[in-house]
Every structure is written in C-alpha cells, then in structure tokens.
Amino acid sequence: MKKIVVGISGASGAIYGIRCLETLNKLGIESHVAISTAAEKTIEYETDYTLEQVKSLCTYLYDLKDIGASIASGSFRVDGMIVAPCSIKTLSSIANSFNDNLISRAADVTLKERRKLVVMVRETPFHLGHLRLMQSAAEMGAVILPPVPSFYHKPASIDDIVNQSVGKALDQFGIDAQLFDRWEGLPANEAVKHS
Fold first, then answer.
1. Which of 29, 101, 121, 179 is the most buried (most CB within 10 A)?
2. Which of UniProt's keywords are assigned here (predicted)?
3. 88 annotated among ligand-binding-site residues
C-alpha cells in the first residue's frame, strides 16, 4: 500500500492540500500529514472546511514542531511527499535544508532518501530569488509543480481547476486519481489504431 507524506503550508491555495487529502482518503492511500500554523488560518479564511474536517481526512496527523516524528526519519518508508500548497517560506526552507519544522524536515528527508518530492509552489509573479529557490530544489531532486491550470478539458468550475492540478501532482507517484480528463489529441489528428 502506498504511503504519501502531505505538507500543507500557509500559502494561498489551501484547497490543493485538502483535495489531495480527500483523494488519498477516497483511494485508501495512507497519508502522513503536517499542517503549518499559517495553513490553519488559510484553511479557515479561504475554504468552507473546518480545521477538524481537514484533520479527519488524515490517516496520521503530526504536530508541526515534532521533529522526532516518524516522517522526520529516512528509515520510515514512504513513497514520497507533496507540499500543497508550498509557500515561498517553505520552499526556501527546503532549498536551503533549513529544517525548522516538520514539513521542511520531512521534505529534506524525502530528498536525501531520493524519494519523490512534489512542491506545488503558490506565488505569482516570481522574482529572481523565487526562481533560484526553485532551481536549487529541482537540482536536489524536487519536482516543481505550480498549480497552473490547463484549459483543454474545458473546466466549468474552480473544482475542475483544482482537481486537474492535484491529479497532475498525484500522477508523479503513479496514482491515477481520475480527477480530470486527459489529453487525447485533437479530433482532426486522431491516430488510426492498427491491429
């Protein structure tokens, strides 16, 4: 059974982390979760979810200050980690190995163990410092996956946009959550199947 660590930082876009947890929960995939203090406020401000509802979606929930938690050690086997959303502060901690809380420590462990780390960086526009942090994290092995929507699937709601980004993040772990329609090519360019 897959095990995914999820960090929810305080950037705008708390719904990305929540949707990730909802999807993992629905698919029966074990989630190990740390939520920042700023994220708790963002969840309350940006969404209709209570913090207790979000916590109930986690298989395991850890205190942000608990750097002795299982997910802070490389000997604890997981398939990887998603930070959704990822604030610039959290990205900076990851890129500089500044393990001041459990989210950045778990991300650092993920990288050192050569496991998949997906960071859904939520900021716009980016200045050069942001881009350098992303470059540094990518050079260490992180997948930089800002929640940039596509429109070929003709999203009809914010949920459709959120689902597509979360689906793309979960794809990185080989999890086909079937949250969005995949590109099949333009009708005029359909390939002919030969048997």
1. 121
2. Flavoprotein, FMN, Lyase, Prenyltransferase, Transferase
3. yes
CATH number, residue 45: 3.40.50.1950
Domains identified in the chain, total number: 1
59 is in an annotated binding site: no
Range of the domain at 135: 3-172
Residue 89 in marked binding region: yes
Please tell me whether 191 is known to bind a ligand. Answer: no
Q: Is 115 annotated as a binding residue?
A: no
Taking the C-alpha atoms of residue 170 and residue 162, their distance in angstroms, rounded to an integer, is 12
CA separation (Å) from 37 to 44, 63, 96?
Answer: 11, 10, 21
